[in-house]
Amino acid sequence: MLSALHEFDMAVLTFLTSFAGRSSLFDHVNNALSRLDIFNGIALMCLFWYVWANAPANEPDSARQLRQRRLIMVLIGTILMGGLSRGLQLSLHFHQRPVLSDLGLPFPVTKFDTQSLNTWNSFPSDHAMIFFALGTGLWTVSRTAGWIACIWTIVIIDVPRVYLGIHYPSDVIFGALFGLLGMTAFLALPLGRFERALDRWRLAHEGLSMALLFLLTNEIGSLLTELRDLVHSSAQILLH
Predict the structure, then answer these.
(1) Minimal CA–CA distance to 134: which of 230, 219, 227, 30?
(2) Hey, what domains does the chain have and what are their CATH numbers?
(3) pLDDT digits (tens, 9 = 90+) for 14-34
(4) pTM of the entire structure?
(5) 169-187 vs 61-91: helix crossing angle, rounded to 10
(6) What three-state secondary structure class fits 200?
(7) For residue 224, which of 74, 93, 124, 234 sits 20 to 30 Å off, Cα-Cα?
(8) What is the CA radius of gyration of the chain?
(9) Which string of DSSP letters, residue by residue, matches 22-84?
(10) How far apart are CA 162 and CA 168, in angstroms?
């Protein structure tokens, strides 16, 4: 199976890299799409806030409350998928990033330093896992928003990262699958009592809860980078 997966990855990468170098503008646009948060998580967080605030005409307060309660659970599930994706990358010694491997492929030459990429296992793609989890959760609230999030993740986030050699196609495919299944399983958990308690606290402390929600969406928009760094540095201090 691993051999077949490698052959699939190499076939896709060989096809994509056949376009490398034909247009420096095209290569640098893909670099911008892969590296700037405004095209990644921030855009999808704007979609989240749109779904949060965009109430249908004459929507009852109870329906609005249920919708926003579900969106909070989607955020929590997305953060959990972010932690799980990093755990899988650190524990599954699958393969290094294509651009850092000696594959003999002409990946696009851009001005970013490839050594700035983390050098551990790139399977599964954390971008795909986190944002497909988000899209799956949004789909349960608004199918249109869910489809937009998933298509955006594939076209704007994932494909450029494969083209640049940051991920193998299999990293993205399995990351998306894990995100979808993970969020589906999380939302199926019997957490009704927790949801209602959290909702009561939110309504009783609306200002603080909105500030915390903004903080969470800001972290997801940057792929939980600061939160991960904080956890990692804290663990190092506590374990030494």
Answers:
(1) 219
(2) 32-110+118-238 (1.20.144)
(3) 999 999 989 989 999 999 998
(4) 0.90
(5) 140
(6) helix
(7) 93
(8) 19
(9) S-HHHHHHHHHHHH-GGGTHHHHHHHHHHHHH-PPTT--HHHHHHHHHHHHHHHHHHHHHHHH
(10) 6
